[in-house]
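Researcher: Go.
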Amino acid sequence: MFLVPFTREPRELSRLFDDTFERFFSPAPGGEGAAARSPALDVTESDRAYTVRLDVPGVAKEDVKVSVEGRQVTVQAQSQRSEEKKEGERLLYRERSMTSYARSFTLPTEVDQAEAGARLEHGVLTLTLPKRSARAAAQITVN
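Model: Structure:
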């Protein structure tokens, strides 16, 4: 049997892993330049409506914007950073920062915008999107 002792790893390989892990585990930068996260969502369908649930933790209902255009639904949300400071305190380290969420998706049928609703509870945004009723086809009488 032939054994080769491996005493040192190549410098380039070590640096590759260090850079990768540092980028992966370092906190995401907050601020307006940060990329928006795509929230996880579940879509269910009934005879009359679609129900969509999206995870947007840390977001207040005033900071959520939902737009519906035909079959296209767009959700944008942004958590606000709390800047409250108590007298005699100073910030030593901050990992919790402002987070943006954005997600667009297309449903199989058009949505009735006037009847649509949204509710935000415990970091979960629930959209109720009624399907647009199909209008009865008008018949033309031939004279």
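Model: The CA atoms of residues 74 and 104 lie 4 Å apart.
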